[in-house]
Write a structure and sequence with these properties.
The structure is a homotrimer.
Chain A: H1 12-23, E1 30-32, H2 40-43, H3 52-56, H4 61-69, H5 86-98, H6 107-120, H7 131-143, H8 149-155, E2 158-162, H9 172-179, E3 186-188, H10 194-197, H11 205-216, H12 223-239, E4 244-247, H13 259-270, H14 276-297, E5 300-303, E6 307-308, H15 313-319, E7 327-328, H16 338-344, E8 352-354, H17 360-370, E9 376-378, H18 388-402, H19 419-440, H20 446-457, H21 459-464
Parallel strand pairs in A: 1-2, 2-3, 4-5, 5-8, 8-9
Antiparallel strand pairs in A: 6-7
GO molecular function (chains A, B, C): glucuronate isomerase activity
Pathway (chains A, B, C): Carbohydrate metabolism; pentose and glucuronate interconversion
Keywords (chains A, B, C): Isomerase
Chain lengths: ~475, ~475, ~475
């Protein structure tokens, strides 16, 4: 069985403090403002995972990348495979057992052990010898009514959860799910217009823009129409429960073009006739437009920039995106955000949440900026950083400069449903660990520490993501 | 009451070591080689702070920036306000109480709690409910003779303190203060010629140069005269007690121009006719001149480079400089210091103290360089880094490469008088914490640890800043 | 006497775990896949160090740089001196005693104390008062049979050790040493072709290329011949026991030139007529060739890039290379390795071990890349980072992203023979310290922790460096 004190500090007195702090939040419901679980899992009244591999391996690039690093072919894990058979699924799970030792020290190991124990009640050690039988046990469980996705959402005590959706989605699945009194949480879509903002990178961009216009009910083939169409879709998403727009580009610059230039480049882009540099110029201008729209419609902006997406073209060609080969790039926030912050940073009603995988910007840029600008919040550790050591470093780097009120609260950002409670619990334990250190240092009273804990999982994210 | 063991390690055995180490330095006098307290506070035989807000909030951008990040307008804190009334001051202090929770985890919270307790004997928790009464208590105290600035300097056991001064200042206030047997410390001015070295950035630079010439008694409107004028001012400052010149530019390059080019650009600059790039070229040449002058006059050089000064133009326009919106920039030391170090780095009589807010240069550049070059010292954690976690990281990153003898010793760099003993005490406690870890690791004997402690507050800074 | 628990965690329960973990590896033999000890020390059946200064100071730039930072002239330490007398040697050793305090907090202090105690049985504290007598004691010891280098190799339990050799070396000393049943370890040469790959930087490059051709038995003065010559030398080294090629350039780019361009530039280079930029182009092309050759001959590639070699020209001119003035440069891995990894990163038989002194790439680039690509391994902390705090940070930054199986295992990279067992022991203790934290966190079972320990010193490096 997983230990009740896992991830707490080793020093006994500090551990006692951490226990008390953790007890404040252990059973509080989960707020998940950003993630990638498909809405269908929630809409379907009785959705069950086909098998343990569909649940734990194939869709979770956190898991598949480590096996890939050991020389396993992604196709053997079901990645990009149609008609992956039951036999193949079991084999994939056994591969996980075989290579389990490669996960030592990674959060995937911790999460998986935790999920086996807390969700499936399996406490025997996972590994090459037990993977097969554990597959069978979970497989049986998954057939049971208490393992439908909705039952899991209830069991996991999820209060709010956001998907990430196609900009043109009519969101009727969200509406129907929320209208269903049987669905135990509040479900929100999220607005993610990346492809429209990248005229150079997006394949057949002009066609995408035309479809956007059709859905938005306006001719989007001019810059003015395009902008209005995106504005309408933002409002549509907001009316259907969205609280945020999410953005992931190579940088966060918001340089505006002149009217003449933007119209000229837009036309060229529609004709499929722009350079990469012109694509960047348009994207930065379009992104600036999103920032302006946020002043009006009030959607929170979350940004996940500075990534080498699809670093590996071989695997991309064979298996597609999201295979674990999105590699962090150097981040640049202070220089690139300047014009945005100079214009809107002092507006407390504008919420801009900045994520990074480049830890060097924590103490040099994001902490100092968030400790000055009311609109700026520092996003929780993302992707490779959603791990015990990096989470502790995040607190270490940022709180002295910006305190706790300018943190986003935990973001699981996952498509692995069973990992959601584990990831949130991991973060709660680590928050307790960090805060217990402040209490042990006599920098904070235990009472204030408890308030920091509660706020970190409830009023904090409620405020940042405007949930009330 | 603040806890006697605050900031010490949690592990009981290590904490015992830290206690012993700290005891070595707890009561040693304070050496403050660089800071921003106005000389008038010391010159006036009976200067009293007008009220707690003038003491703790208005002039301290560490404090005001956090409230600003919560949406408070700087003018409500007295920033840039003439005739800030007693009522407004009390309201500002109550705002601090109201937003006190936003300071959790920041050093400002720790310092303030510490100052309330150790300076004013106030041990009730500060917060929204107590801010008003605490204001009144402090306000009463501040009227008392034992709360004149001079009485505080004595109480704080300050042995040496440096102000930062106008290059043209005749320093008679320093002279008179030092001549007064009643003043309990040694008071030094510091030479800070930044504006003269930035012909592009400085408004009305030619006029400033003319004034420089008048004070220096030489026509400074040619490059040769300008250089001689600065040389004379350096010597003047040294004769009046200065131990260092302080510099803060975008970079630390020392590229020299040819005689022809420097004379040509100087003329253009006097005519107000240079580009930003030409301004940078002149500034690097002028900075190289400062380095050469230091070889002769022996003033220590301290550099605080790589900052986006006045990042927020809105607030700058309304409230001026030093409002907490100086944001760290990426640092570059190894490349940019090469020509300087190649020329003068092997001269042990030349002391160059490099500060940074970009922690990435600690282990990559400053530690290795200070561990080779006799002239290079690594400045104490600065501005956003003057906090418990960053101070521990500073030791962690640098001492393995450069040991303890190449550290500057603590620099408070503040205009907040009451925070000076607290900041130094914080650093002494954290030094004890770090060194106790080395002793607990059996890497260092307790006796050597005690010597490291004592030297870190006495012979270390005395040597680095040539105080003897 | 050095403490049995040195470097273990302070918390008693965690320390107990660390003790158990360390016990697993304490007595396991040493694998040293990369270092700089001269082969002559091993070939000679009865090589003895001339005196303690030759053993501990003169050839060890880790030691000399700290004294240099205190103003000591390198010549007084024997650096670059022929006919350094016994008297001068003793004086150098006394200087080490005099400046011993400057080493506090550095690994050099820890290693030296450890070596004195464990190799020479000297347990009195080293320092200004004892340096002279300790010199004499060691000097006596060094004459004894049990202090021949071979006896030390045996005492140190070194199982595998690699030197770093001239590309044209016929390696007969290695062959003879390995053939000698009296030599207690496996001795490998390493292929280091840097100078041939740097046509601009290498003095008299054309002449070096001609000599390469002579040794390789082929006209190397054309690009085709040059490439074939290097290929032959790689194979020659492999046949004589080499397991790796080692490379240290300003970057790790592998941009290929067209056939026409490479032939044209090669000719120009042979004529001594290329620009620095052309030199870089050729070097990147040549480096790409090395990568291709590795696909065929299977030599592991280790890279030590991004260094300002010989930062200090004054000392370089007087004392030559390797004097402690190789300063870390900013690293760039994700961008620069892309083409290499896209081509060969998915080949599990290709082993590429990336070292760095820029810790910012650990969590941002190397961890994520090693956690995806089978061919990529993260090299142990190098040069300034081979220290307790940086080693702990290395585990902290990388293992959550890449686990333990993608680490290189410890690399001592030294020419200081007596420091080899101490450095390996230091790393074993610190690995135990880090892993004990995972066990204490309940993230890892003690049994798995023990396996991580054993693998980190045996099967890990055996796999990475293809020793079996």
């Amino acid at each position: 069985m997983v230990n009740a004190d896992r991830l707490f500090p080793a020093d006994p007195a500090t551990r006692d403090i951490a226990r008390e702090l953790y007890a404040e939040v252990k059973d509080l419901p989960i707020i998940s403002p950003h993630g990638h679980v498909p809405v269908e899992w929630f809409h379907d009244k009785d959705y069950h995972f086909a098998n343990p591999t569909e649940l734990f391996i194939t869709p979770d690039h956190y898991v598949t990348r480590i096996m890939h690093s050991q020389g396993v072919d992604l196709k053997d894990l079901g990645v990009g495979q149609k008609n992956f058979t039951e036999e193949q699924s079991k084999h994939a799970f056994e591969l996980l057992g075989k290579y389990w030792y490669a996960y030592v020290g990674t959060p995937m190991q911790y999460w998986f052990d935790d999920e086996l124990s807390t969700v499936f009640g399996i406490d025997k050690p996972f590994g090459p010898d037990t993977a097969g039988e554990i597959y069978d046990e979970i497989n049986d469980d998954l057939k049971q009514p208490e393992f439908s996705t909705r039952a899991l959402v209830k069991k996991f005590n999820i209060e709010f959860i956001s998907t990430t959706d196609d900009t043109l989605d009519d969101l009727h699945l969200h509406d129907e799910t929320n209208a269903d009194p049987d669905f135990p949480a509040r479900l929100a879509p999220a607005f993610r217009p990346d492809l429209y903002l990248e005229p150079y990178k997006t394949a057949n961009w002009a066609h995408e823009v035309e479809k956007l216009g059709e859905v938005a009910g306006i001719d989007a083939t001019t810059y003015a129409g395009f902008t209005e169409a995106l504005r309408r879709r933002r409002v549509y998403f907001k009316e259907h429960g969205a609280v945020l727009s999410d953005h992931s580009h190579a940088d966060v610059r918001t340089d505006r073009l002149s009217d003449t230039e933007v119209n000229r480049l837009f036309k060229q882009a529609m004709a499929g006739n722009i350079t990469p540099e012109e694509g960047d110029k348009l994207r930065r201008h379009f992104f600036a437009d999103q920032v302006e729209m946020a002043q009006e419609d009030g959607l929170v902006m979350t940004v996940h920039p500075h990534v080498h997406r699809d670093y590996d073209p071989q695997n991309l060609a064979q298996y597609g995106v999201n295979i674990g080969a999105d590699i962090p790039a150097k981040a640049e926030y202070a220089v690139d955000l300047k014009s945005l912050l100079n214009k809107y940073g002092n507006n407390p009603d504008f919420h801009f949440v900045a994520f990074t995988m480049d830890e060097t910007v924590y103490s040099r840029e994001l902490g100092p900026l968030a400790g000055f600008y009311p609109s700026l919040y520092v996003g929780a550790p993302w992707w490779f950083l959603d791990s015990p050591e990096p989470i502790l470093r995040y607190f270490d780097y940022i709180t002295t400069a910006a305190g706790f009120t300018k943190l986003s609260g935990f973001i699981d950002d996952t498509r692995a449903l069973c990992s959601i409670p584990t990831r949130h619990d991991t973060n709660r334990r680590l928050t307790a660990r960090f805060v217990s250190g402040l209490v042990a240092d006599h920098r904070l009273s235990l009472e204030d520490g408890k308030k920091v804990m509660r706020d970190s999982v409830q009023s904090g994210p409620r405020h940042v993501f405007k949930l009330d």
